[in-house]
Amino acid sequence: MDTVLSASTDKPSENRSFILFISVVATIGGFLFGFDSGVINGTVDGLQAAFQSESVGTGFNVSSMLLGCAVGAFFAGRLADKYGRRALLLVAAVFFIISAWGSGVSTSGGEFVFYRILGGLAVGAASVMAPAYIAEVSPARYRGMLTSIQQIAIISGLFAAFLSNYILADFASGSTQALWMDYAAWRWMFWMELIPASLFLVMLLFIPESPRFLVVKGDKVKALQVLGKLYGDAGAGKLTEIESTLANDHQPRLSDLKKPDTGKVRPIVWIGLGLATLQQLVGINVVFYYGAVLWQAVGFSESDALLINVISGAISIAACLVTLAIIDKVGRKPLLKWGSAGMSVTLIALVVAFGNAEQGMDGKLIMGAWGPVALIAANLYVFCFNFSWGPVMWVMLGEMFPNQIRGSGLAVSGLIQWLTNFAITWTFPMMLAGIGLAGAYGFYALCAVLSVIFVSKYVYETRGRELEDMKG
């Protein structure tokens, strides 16, 4: 069966350049996902000064976007089953634009949270729809590579936000200092997002709707046109394959996530939820959202802390490029296992480094000889995450569910992923004030160890399998 399916997409008429083009356009949503997530990193001091917030309030201001992400991810899957993948990405682009503008002009914590939640809806929708869209237009033999571009786009967005924050803060001599038109630098950090958000909206007008969605909606003529552009002469055969998997199915609904004979949640759904939860419990977004705060807490200046973020972003991109090159050769499961093992070791090293530091009179940690250890371990941890769980989780969520439950599976997995992200991000300032950096990173290290066990026992390989061949 796999041989027949693969053969139909291996013909020379396959339009690789068009497939690559629409995949790159879709991943601009991933870039905005990363930029919108990373831009907050350099604005924490500005938010505290502007809105007079303490640790709990600051944690909520930073993490408020993630509530929108959870809602956006949950409803995007269901709405995309009704209105289309491309249509949802267009709405997300508009929300990105409004959020970027509004976050910069906000004059109160409540107003800021509103615009950040609006941006979160866009991030949540893009996070699940971009990989699903790419998976649905890509041949199985290099689907993993194309879907991994999403993570490269996310990390590139983070890197761009870190670099933009560093340059703007340096130019203004501090994130809270006035820059152009007498607005503080931290406000301009948000407004920089208007450039890629506007580009995303325009470029989406030049890509087609997912052919699998068109078949589900009964528009076979248009689906065949799109498949013809994607696969040339093999398009008609691909249409037959899609129709055969949908022949006995009904319109997608959430109840499909349960087995019809027993009423129990399908095992594949639990695996998706496990992947989504553990990706956040290892604490990666604490580094992305609070990197500047973390490094200032151990004695670095704001400028040096922002520069370290830029370095971490570059390392993340390098790690994703490694994944891009090998994911369709070695598979998804091995990368997850190697990444989990690497994160476990590096997080434990961070716990030891932070645990052996001394606290100064100003409350900051004095790292001494442990400073380089912490810096190296943190960046190795970032590398391990971004060549494994960062891209691979999104690849698997985009391809592991059968056609019938892909939208619903992505909805619940995305919801749990962002709710876990919110919990980790919101609690970090409180953990920092309560149990300290060593305690916080001890928890993340424990979760990394648990991820090794989870992958080894429950995750199965999806490399090289057509979406029509996925079982629930």
Key structural traits:
472 residues; Growth Hormone, Chain: A; 2 strands; 75% helix; globular
Task: Write up what this structure looks like.
By secondary structure, this protein is mostly helical. It has a single domain, classed as Growth Hormone, Chain: A. Helix content is 75%, strand content 1%. The chain has 20 helices and two strands. It has helices at 2-8, 16-38, 44-51, 55-83, 85-105, 109-137, 143-172, 185-191, 194-203, 211-216, 220-231, 235-246, 267-281, 284-297, 302-330, 332-355, 370-386, 389-399, 406-434, 436-458; strands at 358-359, 365-366. Strands 1-2 form a two-stranded antiparallel sheet. A hairpin with a 5-residue loop joins strand 1 and strand 2 (365-366). The longest helix is centred in the middle third of the chain and has 30 residues, at 143-172. It starts with a helix and ends in a 14-residue tail after the last helix. Mean pLDDT is 75; it is low at 1-12.
- Give the SSE order as H and E letters: HHHHHHHHHHHHHHHHEEHHHH
Query: What Rg do the Cα atoms give?
Result: 22 Å
CATH topology term: Growth Hormone, Chain: A
Mean of the pLDDT scores? 75
Termini, distance in Å?
17 Å
What's the count of strands? 2
Relative helix content? over 70%
Strand content: under 5%
| Structural class label | mainly alpha
Can you summarize the main beta sheet? 2 strands, antiparallel
Principal-axis shape equals globular
The number of helical elements comes to 20
Describe the strand arrangement of the main beta sheet, using strand numbers.
1-2
CATH architectural arrangement: Up-down Bundle
Instruction: List low-pLDDT spans.
Output: 1-12
CATH superfamily: MFS general substrate transporter like domains
Regarding quaternary structure, how should these chains be classified? Answer: single chain
